From TrEMBL:
This is Thioredoxin reductase. InterPro entries: FAD/NAD-bd_sf (IPR036188), FAD/NAD-binding_dom (IPR023753), Ferredoxin-NADP_redctase_2 (IPR050097), Pyr_nucl-diS_OxRdtase_2_AS (IPR008255), Thioredox_Rdtase (IPR005982). PANTHER family: THIOREDOXIN REDUCTASE 1-RELATED-RELATED. One of its GO terms (cellular component) is cytoplasm. PROSITE patterns: PYRIDINE_REDOX_2 (PS00573). Its EC number is 1.8.1.9. Its cofactor is FAD. It catalyses: [thioredoxin]-dithiol + NADP(+) = [thioredoxin]-disulfide + NADPH + H(+).
């Protein structure tokens, strides 16, 4: 019987493992199919993590995390978890081969990923001019022009954020109406550095070996070409909550309309002993430093929970 099962090996899961084992738990296993590290290992440059002054790749950045987290006794199970369920006070970690492991508590850190638009050239220039994180990559386009694709709250909020850094932001949406809060729409429309292009679609993202250099738009049947080095795509976000889905199709714990897990400030769900962290939870910051904080918070909550049980 595990004291704690951690599902997912990104920054949130690893931080949870570190704080849990260093806090005294002996039987803690992190379930992750591949090597721990998470999505951030695919990033070419990280320069905004506090205390890390040099610019490093995501892979290099996460390498010492693994060494540090496993030093205190965290175990790594390189298996796929298909479902987490609860029977009485005990959780069952159901694995792909049909076997299961019991656990007194569970931290789910399976994350999520931004949806891709499917536009021609998007995959080619992904990470080389095409981004889904203005906070992460906006600084690379300081005093340059960029395109933002999307019409929801995230797209408009990120357009406003980028307008503080970039010389101009082209906000492209397929409809004239935006699916965002009225106050956010007002901010966008009042920002002189944001040009709204609607209704319009992006036909192609193009460039060369150095990255993106242009975007071709279809604006009500007329083509328009924008010479820009960066495109930010905000067309939705898919959380990886599949392990919480039960055999009857219900969810183990409360989730919002988008599938994100509802938690409190201690990362507790509405199921005793179950916690959700990182991009999986509601109102996630979707930054490494935020995910790490979530993991630490959840682990401290687990320590208090197990002490009381």
């Amino acid at each position: 019987m595990l004291d704690l099962a951690i599902i997912g090996g990104g920054p949130a899961g690893l931080s949870a493992g570190l704080y849990a084992t260093r806090g005294g738990l002996k039987d803690v296993t992190l379930f992750e199919m591949g090597m721990p590290g998470g999505q951030i290992t695919g990033s070419s440059e990280i320069e905004n993590y506090p205390g890390v002054a040099q610019v490093v790749s995501g892979l290099d950045f996460m390498q010492p995390w693994q060494e540090q987290c496993f030093r205190f006794g965290l175990k790594h199970a390189m298996v796929e978890v298909t479902r987490v369920q609860k029977s009485g006070d005990v959780f069952e970690i159901i694995q792909a081969d049909g076997t299961s492991v019991g656990a007194k508590s569970v931290i789910v850190a399976t994350g999520g990923k931004p949806k891709r638009s499917g536009i021609k050239g998007e995959d080619v220039y992904w990470g080389r001019g095409v981004s889904t994180c203005a906070t992460c990559d906006g600084f690379f386009y300081k005093n340059k022009e960029v395109v933002v694709l999307g019409g929801g709250d995230t797209a408009l909020e990120e357009a406003v954020y980028l307008a503080r850094i970039c010389s101009k932001v082209y906000l492209v949406h397929r409809r004239n109406e935006f699916r965002a809060a009225p106050s956010t729409i007002k901010h966008v429309k009042e920002n002189e550095k944001i040009e709204i292009i609607t209704p319009a679609t992006i036909e192609e993202i193009g460039g060369d070996q150095s990255g993106v250099s242009f975007v071709t738009l279809n604006v009500e049947g007329t083509q328009r070409r924008l010479e820009v080095p960066g495109v930010f795509v905000f067309v939705g976000y898919a959380v990886n909550n599949k392990v919480l889905q039960q055999a009857d199709g219900t969810m183990l714990c409360e989730c919002d309309a988008m599938g994100s897990v509802v938690v409190d400030l201690s990362m507790k769900t509405n199921v005793a002993g179950l916690y959700a962290v990182g991009d999986l939870r509601i109102q996630a910051g979707k930054q490494v430093v935020c995910a790490a904080g979530d993991g630490a918070t959840a682990a401290l909550s687990v320590l208090a929970y197990l002490e009381g049980h």
